Amino acid sequence: MKWFVLYTKSRFEKKVADRLRNIGYEVYCPLVERSSKWSDRTKIVTDPLFKSYVFVRHASNPKTEVMNVPGVVQYLYWLGKPAIVKQHEIDTIEEWLNMGEVEDCMITSMSPGDRIKVKKGLLKGKDGVIKEINGDSVKLILSSLGCTVVIKTLSLA
Is the separation of the CB atoms in 147 and 131 below 8 Å? Predict the structure, then answer.
């Protein structure tokens, strides 16, 4: 049994997860609580950690039954194949959520030549250009420092 990533319609993550559970699939839709403010009140709401993504576990791929669930758009692909998430990566996400260390997360695709700004850590605020992507690492050119760094990323494959 492998974990696959499904791309869903916007704001359909919880509905898709419930529908898949109802037909017998193991599903993981990590949720985070956040404070949302309206003009008349503030309320704690529960949102998916990964906007428009749900993890589903099954033996073979792709499953036609999964694709027929309302709200499912497609599988997330990595290097031309449906992305497979390792169990230890799912466990790590759960651990982070249990420790309260994750507030928000966004999945984006990166390509060589893309300009990025480092948001956290020792290099916070530095601009860089992606030179190459090699498996689970990214080579980033930081011209302001006159160097190239290699950054390990969380791999979905």
Answer: no
Report DSSP letters for 15-57, one per residue: HHHHHHHHTT-EEE--EEEEEEE-SS-EEEEEEESBTTEEEEE
**Structure confidence at residue 157 as a pLDDT band (50, 70, 90):** very low
* Side chain identity, residue 139: K
CB contact at 8 A, 13 and 54 = yes
pTM above 0.70, yes or no: no
Distance between CA atoms of residues 112 and 43, nearest Å: 41
- Select from 2, 117, 147 the least CA-distant residue to 60: 2
3-22: b (≥16 Cβ within 10 Å) or e? bbbbbbeeebbbbbbebbee
How far, in Å, CA of 52 to CA of 42, rounded? 25
CA pair distance 45, 34, nearest whole angstrom: 6
61 pLDDT band, cuts 50/70/90, is low
